[in-house]
Amino acid sequence: MKIENVNLNENIQRSLDDMGFDECTQIQQETIPVILEGRDIIGQSNTGTGKTAAFGIPILQEIDKNLRMPQAMVILPTRELAVQVANEFRKMGKYMEGIKTVTVYGGADIRQQIKRLKGGAQIIVGTPGRIIDLIDRHVIKLSELNITVLDEADEMLKMGFREDIELILDKIGHSVQTLLFSATIPVEMKNIINKFLNNPQIIRVLREGITAKEVKQNYFLVKNSGKVEALTRIIDTYTPKLTLIFCNTKKSVDHLYEQLIEKGYNCDKIHGDIKQAQRLDTLNKFNNGLIDILIATDVAARGIDIKEVEAVINFDVPAKEDYYVHRIGRTGRAGREGASFTLATSKEMGKIKSIEKYTKKSIRKRSIPTVDKVNEVKQDKFIRNIVDVIEKGDLGENRELAARLMSKGYDAETLIAAMIKKLVKFDYSEERDLNDTMPERRKRGSAKILKDTVKFHVNLGRRQGIRPGDILGAIAGECDIPGSDIGEIEVLENYSFFNVASKHKNHILSKMKNAQIKGQNVVIELSNEKRSRRGRSKSKR
Q: Which fold has domain 10-205?
């Protein structure tokens, strides 16, 4: 791995050779020389472009191994990402004796982290809350700190860490080189940039559009009742090496995991309610191919960098467009080809269109594989495996067992058919069409006139980015209510109203109790007609 105008430490180069780094990515080539010059930078690039090495290599290059004090600090949004980045530092610095990296994050024994820090560490990688705690305990000493990295900065802001980040940077108390890496630069991040970065050089390395061109994006229009069966048909037909499945909620992850385990799939799950040690163990097994399928929520999967993921499946359409980008960014990494599949009901097609508009890319609509197609793939795979065993030879004592079976008087075809029935599970059930169809669109500006309706109040409005279609999609999708039973939808500045057939009243109150619309918590209750109608403007479907 060669970087223009940079003479890499030979021990770093040796580690990079071991790791298979043949050439730099664009973000590495453009940022490493600038960082080594001592300049602050803003590195804006997509997921999977090699950002960790972009800041990790120059940090290791400049570390004084004889000074057993924190000299570099990397701040990240999640525990999983902190562990991942720290491991990359250790790999890149494995031939540099005397360099110690310590990971600190909440949810783990702080006493062990304090012990490791007191043993002397030059590089600290951690999450904001635990870093603040250890600074306040005077365990992390900042007097020799000379470089700070804010990685996945936009995600830290989304997760509410802005005040923590500013507090940490304030506590440093002296001038340091600051590196900020982020896929997007929201407005509130500019305040941090203006306050804490010194004339930063902006380096943008964004792929065409927002999503990786190496990812083939597909969606299936599926009936809600057939999503699990559709999922298994997709897995069985495309047979990806490692599959990452995303659900919107922890409950959905648990439910899907139970169903796939029952069907015999080699899978596991991660979400926020699972203990940290178990999550890391599961990720390690998935990374090493001991688990074929990993089911996860967005937050739990943040920062996963598993280079061999061949397919990402959105079992639930993500609540936000940028969640979609982060999800499918788990595959198609480092130039490899990947695929993403999204299961969407007809009521969620508005979300698919919003994602296409956001990413500036079309998503290909495909038909759900038929039972015959699934069986054909399974049969071909079975035959290939048998032929492979034959060609490798060394059948040994198995030939004796085969001879005993043949002596029973059955012909070879009957014996093979019996063994296939015993060893391989094919689906010979009647074909069930899982494909959904789009309902006929109503004319724009029209609303269904319903008799015997109830009116509901929603605590979100235009200021929160809500549109009539968002409310329609949420109520129809979450409650499985036909659009024909939903009447006028009225979106105001800070709240909204909608009418629905009275027979659905209790069902809506129950189903929407802990729901979200566009990623925002929503409170839906029966409307109080005494609410002020001042400033109201109607927006109808």
A: Rossmann fold (3.40.50)
- Position of tokens 């495309």? 238
Three state DSSP letters for 436-448: CCCCCCCCCCCCC
Per-residue exposure over 500-522, b if at least 16 CB sit within 10 Å of its own CB, e if not: bbeebeeebeebbeebbbbeeeb
More reliable by pLDDT, 274 or 60:
60
CA atoms of 317 and 245, how far apart (whole Å): 11
Domains of the chain, residue spans:
10-205, 215-370, 377-423, 453-526
Strand 496-501 to strand 486-491: parallel, antiparallel, or no bridges (unpaired)? antiparallel
Q: Residue 346 in 3-state DSSP?
A: helix
| Rounded CA separation 259/256 (Å) | 5
- Kindly tell me the burial class for residue 275, based on how many C-beta atoms sit within 10 Å of its own C-beta (0-12, 13-18, 19 or more): exposed
Tokens 């306040």 sit on residue = 136
> Given this model, what pLDDT does residue 528 score?
67
State the pTM of this model. 0.53
The rounded Cα 257 to chain-centroid distance in angstroms is 17
Protein fold of 215-370: Rossmann fold (3.40.50)
Contacts of 91 (CB under 8 A, 6+ apart): 15, 18, 19
Domains 215-370 and 453-526 in one fold: no
For residues 130 and 78, is the Cβ–Cβ distance under 8 A? no
What's the topology of domain 453-526?
Alpha-Beta Plaits (3.30.70)
- Using one digit for the tens of pLDDT, what is the confidence trace for 87-138? 999 999 999 999 999 999 987 889 999 999 998 999 999 999 999 999 999 9
Backbone φ and ψ of 341, nearest 5°: -130, 130
Q: Are 327 and 260 in contact (CB under 8 A)?
A: no
Closest to 263 in 3D by CA, of 374, 403, 405: 374
Look over the chain and give the mean of its residue pLDDT values, rounded to a whole number: 84
Residue range 312-340: mean pLDDT, rounded: 81
Higher pLDDT, 408 or 428: 408
Reading the block at residue 337, the tokens are 């080809």
